[in-house]
Write a structure and sequence with these properties.
Elements lengths: L5 E4 L17 H14 L3 E4 L1 E2 L5 E2 L2 H14 L4 E4 L9 H5 L8 E5 L3 E2 L5 E2 L3 H14 L2 E6 L2 H12 L8 E6 L9 H8 L7 E6 L4 H11 L2 E4 L6 E3 L2 E2 L3 H14 L7 H8 L4
Parallel strand pairs: 1-2, 1-12, 2-5, 6-9, 9-10, 10-11, 11-12
Antiparallel strand pairs: 3-4, 7-8, 13-14
The chain binds (5S)-5-amino-3-OXO-hexanoic acid (KMH) and zinc ion.
The site of zinc ion has 7 residues, from loops.
Length: 273
């Protein structure tokens, strides 16, 4: 079994300081949370950015500042900007960080409800447009799948040549509108991708550590962080993303899985191959 790649999703677009006062907004706060996560064992930082007041933004220049600040404190970590942004943003807005040619970025593979009246829109043509831009700039896509149909869409677009190999999936389980975060769901998602593909599991809310543990056992990788969950354990808010990463590391060690460095993560995923 390969070493474990831990992704830290340090701020997302939805969670706020009202939920957990240590959610990072400013460039300095984002860099500090990235540093804590990388020092605890994360090899990938999944990055959303905010204005200083916490408003989510996909502004290219804000991403540039945050990426520069993160590289200063953890030069080796893989930075994976979001192209999902926040619900309601235009495709043009969402694609801005890809212009910075990050090593990796997310590619959301379908439309889903996102709680209340929110719909996270990713039509087939949107996915093709985003994939083409990433391919053109040599950006490695992480295929975000909130439901089984999104895996099928990704595989169809791979077959048609829009999404290049190697295929790396992120199964997001527990979004209000996507697949739930039960063990049977992760087993089903994993069984739906080709044998050579790599995958990460992201469990939302209380599903974060159960999904991470199951993925670790199954040879997958794990994502933790405030974007998906703000609690270290029931009723106890995490004091930093680093605490969530450290917990994933402890679980992995107990289960006999070593942790990948950023360099090892690049090799496992085939980034730059
Ligand atoms: N904030 C969600 C609407 C991604 O980063 O690619 C979308 C999201 C997915 O977080
Ligand atoms: Zn995200």
């Amino acid at each position: 079994m390969s070493k474990l790649i831990i992704t830290a999703a340090i701020c997302g677009a939805e969670v706020t300081k009202q939920h957990n006062p240590t959610v990072p907004y400013t460039v300095a706060e984002i860099a500090e949370e990235a540093r804590r996560s990388a020092e605890a064992g994360a090899s990938i930082i999944h990055l959303h950015v905010r204005q200083d007041d916490g408003t989510p933004t996909q502004d290219r220049e804000r991403y540039r500042l945050c990426i520069e600040a993160i590289k200063k404190v953890c030069p080796d970590v893989i930075i994976q900007p979001s192209t999902g942004g926040a619900v309601g943003m235009s495709n043009e807005e969402r694609l801005q960080p890809v212009d910075l040619k990050p090593e990796m970025a997310t590619l959301d593979c379908g439309t889903c409800n996102f709680g209340g009246d929110d719909i996270f829109v990713n039509t087939e043509n949107t996915i093709i447009e985003f994939a083409a831009k990433m391919k053109g700039l040599g950006v490695f896509p992480e295929l975000e799948c909130f439901d089984k149909g999104m895996i099928d869409m990704a595989l169809r677009l791979h077959k048609k040549g829009h999404i290049p190999a190697p295929l790396h999936f992120n199964f997001v389980l527990g979004v209000n509108g996507g697949i739930s975060a039960e063990p049977r769901d992760l087993i089903f998602m994993r069984g739906s991708v080709p044998p050579g593909a790599t995958f990460t599991a992201t469990g939302i809310g209380r599903g974060q550590f159960p999904m991470a543990a199951l993925s670790i056992i199954m040879g997958g990788h794990a994502r933790v962080g405030y974007e998906d969950n703000i609690y270290l354990e029931k009723g106890v808010l995490a004091k930093s993303n680093g605490e969530l990463v450290a917990k994933a590391v402890r679980i992995a060690r107990e289960l006999g899985r070593d942790i990948a460095s950023p360099g090892e993560a690049r090799t496992i995923l085939g980034i730059g191959r």
